Structure prediction request, 310 residues.
Amino acid sequence: MNSGETEVDRLDYALALHGGAGSETLFLGRAEKQQYHACLADTLKLGKSVLEQGGSSLGAVETVVRALEDDPKFNAGHGSVLNYDGNHVLDACIMDGRNRACGAVAAVTTVRHPIHLARLVMTETEHVFLVGDGADQFAREMRIELVDQDFFRTERRLRGWQRALNEAQGAEDENSQHMGTVGCVALDRDGNLAAGTSTGGRTLQRFGRVGDSPVVGAGTFADNNTCAVSCTGVGERFIQHVVAYDISALMEYRQLTVGQAVSHLFKSKLPADSGGIIAMDTCGSIAMQFNTPGMYRAAADSAGRVEIDI
Ligand code: ASP
Prediction:
């Protein structure tokens, strides 16, 4: 298992992002690795500039996740995987550490930026979670950007879907499919934490399956008293172990550091090859850990830290 915690004094601002965890990184050529690296670097810079200029952690999280949703290399928005029926169903969640306000959407089919819709659920409704047709209808009412299913599809995802269908004849290999979900955690100059996650789910998923990404406390969580967390991997494992909230609880009730709390989940709860976690505490200390061969990830802070790795 890879472990990556950095202890720092309280920082003005900090940001970490991920682009999914899994085994895909083992098969990337040099040129592809460079492309991922460049994209992570650009997106990190984008998020950092929001915080540098005094923007909110929520704003930075949405900006980063939107950019990754538009990048076909990642399994969120444009470039999402296909489900069993060959359709794209998207999930997202965002959470505000100031007051635990949160918004989530699942199984949306027409929204270019699901993270934006999740934020509108948080700010424009009295609810926290909208799913399926209702969520798409809410998007129409909010007059946000809508797209056809074709918009989400890429040649690469189509090939992956066809291969998976042929090889598995419907029985997904859970350890080979999870890669490319995106997420971000941030601390702003006002000391507020936020977290967001967006995904196209898992290749060949069916029966109305929803993973952990949009589930508050499982794949996404933020609380100014403890931490901000975004997870990626086999959603079922992250829901079972209520991973994001458990990290917060370990910090609150057992006084673990953010790195210790994340390590505890990997050592004691999550089976091998479950996925990865990015988490940040109220000082801007960042933990980025995974128990898969790789995780696309990047982090930056006001002390000059810049880290990009796959
Ligand atoms: N956690 C996501 C899900 O289960 C997939 C991923 O992170 O790659 O839907």
Remarks:
- Residues 14-309 form a domain with the Glutamine Phosphoribosylpyrophosphate, subunit 1, domain 1 fold (CATH 3.60.20.30).
- The radius of gyration is 17 Å.
